[in-house]
Amino acid sequence: MGYRFNKSFRTDFTISRRWDFELGEADAAGTFFEADIKSTAYMFNGYYDLPVKLARFRPFVGVGVGIAHNDLDDIDWIFPPFSGEIPGGRETDFAWQVMAGTTFKVNDRFALDLGYRYYDAGDIVKDAGLDDTGLWLTGPAEGDMQSHEIFAEFNIKLGRK
């Protein structure tokens, strides 16, 4: 849902779900860790449509701020010949993004935004807890969740033409 203030400035509020991030890291001792990460973001975005038109295309830049709920699934660890599972975690954090792209005007009511977005969802965390054997206590940890994305968004103009 969004609002166009004039020909150059527009805003929107988006809810997005990213469910295909993967953590795959190794520590200094050679233990490999892997887990799935999911993120739900609630973002308020602002766009500036550049005063340049190339046929039906118009370039834009934008920024967004909001919050992200980041879920780190339980983490599988492998230190051959041993392996196991340790607790994941959840974190809600400040999120931000910057984007650039072009709007393709289909007609007076419909447009397609195509572009690039850098997305920073804040922290992901690993909770302290016992591994799946109940023998090893692991401490908490955290890291940053960021991505480079190519996106396509469909815009529908409601109300007056």
UniProtKB/TrEMBL annotation:
Q: Which organism is it from?
A: Candidatus Scalindua japonica
- Give the Outer membrane protein beta-barrel domain ranges: 2-127
Q: Could you tell me the superkingdom of the organism this chain comes from?
A: Bacteria
Please give the InterPro entries that the UniProt record associates with this protein: Beta-barrel_OMP, OMP/PagP_B-barrel
Alphabetized UniProt keyword annotations? Signal
The record's section on SUPFAM superfamilies has:
OMPA-like
Give coiled-coil spans as residue ranges.
Answer: none
Q: What is this protein called?
A: Opacity protein and related surface antigen
